[in-house]
Amino acid sequence: MFSLSVLKSSALKSSVISPCGRLLIAFVLSFSHFLWPNVQAQTQITTPAQVIDATPDGLIQAIVNDVMTIVKTDKEIQAGNINRVIALVDQKIMPFANLQRTTQLAMGRNWSKATPDQQNQIAAEFKLLLIRTYAGALTQIKDQTVQYRPFKAVLEDTDVVVRTQVLNKGEPIQIDYRLEKTPNGWRVYDINVLGAWLIEAYRNQFNNQISQNGIDGLIKFLQERNRQLSKAK
Question: Which residues pair with residue 146 across a beta bridge?
Fold first, then answer.
């Protein structure tokens, strides 16, 4: 959804957790709605009903098309209104994502060592970090288009990858989405941008923080990064 230059400047060169900068904000993954309820109420953004029971590739296509249409036509987003972007992400993308699973896989064996309260704190701060780090990139969507690669799956599949590429001036940007089938439908839990999967990128960063400072140290690290990003907006 972004030009290669925007992707590099806002993500690949990110100093927050650099290997994970390849993530695109349009599909940051989440596990619940807990951000800025007052902003959400004001935006009046609705989610297309047809995506609820969509096939994996149909779900991705519906969300991507919907988000890009809004971003391209919303003057507040184009002007850089981060709260508006946050509301868009939280309402359009979050219901079809599972950051709880993403966080669990990124933490690996350390997930079981964390208390339920610590798990919830890490997942919440993780979501906030992703949104605040990359929300600015979403405002740069202009005339990019997305191509959907041929999708193959059977009815019995419960874990699939939907492959796409973003077309802009310059080379196409590869973006793949890994989804799992849940009782509530298909949910995104991992993303591959330019060959880097989100979970794999964060795993080493999380493990390093925990090995040095423990699980509470990881929570404090994420909280501090979010405070810094909040002041910078």
Answer: 166
